[in-house]
Structure formats: structure tokens, C-alpha cells
User: Fold this.
Amino acid sequence: MKILIIEDEPAIRETLQELLELNGHTVRAAADGRRGVELARDCPELILCDVGLPGLDGYQVIAEVQKLPQCRDIPFIFLTARAEREDQRRGMALGADDYITKPFTERDIVDAINARVRRQQPLRERLEQLLAERSTVIGANWSHELMTPLNGVLGGLEMIEEEAESIQPGELRELLGLIRTGAERQQALSNKLMLYYELERLLAAADRAPAPFISALEAVKDGASQAARQEDRAADVMIDCAPVRLAVFASHLQRAVAELVANACRFSRPGQRVVVSGRLRERRYLLEVADEGPGITPDQCARIGPFVQFGREKREQQGLGLGLAIARSVARLAGGRLVLEPRTDGPGLRVTLDLPGQPA
Assistant:
């Protein structure tokens, strides 16, 4: 296994390197956090990192490493002289897999590495199988998003198991909150995956029955309002849609609008407007979501698809890159299309659901 050690104390760093090499591992070492982030670009299979580093501390190191697309699923173990639960919770929230408290023994290190390998491998195998079964984009960079929430869940459960006799009620509630957050994020990601593949299945079905015509305004408002609340941007989202009848399932339309509004909120700043407008023109309903963010290029507009994200190297994003793909599939099911184009009246992006419609 290729292991990266980031430790500023020479004696500990050299001892760890020797110990790991004697156990058959290939080891590289850095004496400070900035150098450690540079070495992490070479994709080690595991990182051991001191918390109390000069310059970038361990928490800053893991945050920087997880910004690197190729490094997001690398197991990360903290080395620390402190074993306070507050420190552990902070590390777990950032995606750390484990803590080893100094002074440590050879057995502590070997056991921790073996435990991380056992925990990671089944997840990777399942993800690879899912990729093969679903014929998704080769090299799709989304395993990190499915695996990270589990760190909070498994890490919190581990702490409860290890300290069941001494943990205080307030600490227990906090840990359970962390576990719930991870589980809810995992559930949301799973639901989005299932919806995307269900829409793709419907599109491929030869005997697909058309959706009934519905009064669509309520579904549009519900989807936009839901996303605005979840992104804490309710004051920025403006809805100005004419009533219309569309041949689409209300739940699908609501979800498509929610995905488009959520994307617009994430790629714009608080205070910048996100406008949802809808007008019927010659039996076509043009449902537009326009933001004032940086927008994307025409080339990127042409490359939307499942598991594709733009600008992730410049800004932190959570998710699978499925929002636009879901909205596009909903449009196709309704006999329409999804159109992305840079705004001509200022900065930002305009996304349009162009759907067959009837007057309400």
C-alpha cells in the first residue's frame, strides 16, 4: 500500500516510516501540511496526518486534500496528542476515517490501517459493480459523494460503542445528530440516483403511457419554494409563472424545478436573484430558471449529463451532478427539451424547460 505520512516531529515521522516500510508498505513523508497536500496529488492509498502541524494544521490539510478530485476517497487517519471528543467530531465532520492518539504502539498503527482497508474495500467493490451494471460514464467522479456520509455514520457509531459506559447524554445527542445528518445525506443521494435511473427506464420503455395533462403551476411553485428554503435563499428566489396545463407527472415536474432552482442558488451568491418564469407561446410552455452567477460556457452547456459537474475545482460542491440530467429526462418524458444558454442581459445562466402546453 502507498501511504503518505504528514508529521512535523522528525523522530515520530522517521519511526512511522520505518515501521510501515518494515510491514511492506511504500511510504512518502512530509514535514508540514503544505508539502503534504502537494504529495497527496500523487494519490496515496492512505494518509496519516498529525493534527498540530505548523502552517496548515491537520484540519486544513484534509479540507485541501478533499478539494482534489482524485483524492476524495483516500482514507485519512489523524495522529494527535489530544483525544478529546470535540476534536474527533470536528475531524469526522470533515471526512476523517479514524484517530490514533500519541503515544502509539506498532500494533495501534497496523490495526488502524487494516481496519481502514477492510472498511473501504467493500464500498469500492460495490461502487465498481454499480458502475458496471449501469454503464455510467467511465471515470465518473462521484464515489466520494456516496462514501463520505458513511464516515460520519460509522465513526459516530464507533465512538458510541467504544464509550457506551461513560458518554454523557448531551454528547450522545450530538453524536446521534451527526449520525442522522450522514444518514439523511446518504438517503438523499440514493433517492436522486434512483429517480435518475427510473426516468431513464421510462424513457427507454417502448410501451410507455403518456402522462395526463395537469394544471402545473402548483407543482412549479412547490418545487421552486422547496429548493429556495433548503438552500436558505427564500428571499432571493422570484416566481413569475403563468398558469398552464402540461402532460407531465406533477412529482416529476416538481423535482425538475427543484433541481434547477437548487443549482441556480448554489452557483450564485446570497443576494443575487434567481428568477423562475413561465410563459405559454404557440402551445409551447417556456419555463425558465435564470441566475446571476458566473454561468458556464457554450461548450459546457453542450456537455451536460449524469455525473458531470463544472467548476468543482474552483468551488466546493456536494452531490452527484445529476440535477440537470434529471431535469432533462423529465423534459424528454413530457415531449420537450432542456436548453442551457448564457444570459445575454448580464452575467449568469438561463435554463429552460421547453414543454408542450395548453392554456389553463
Remarks:
- The radius of gyration is 24 Å.
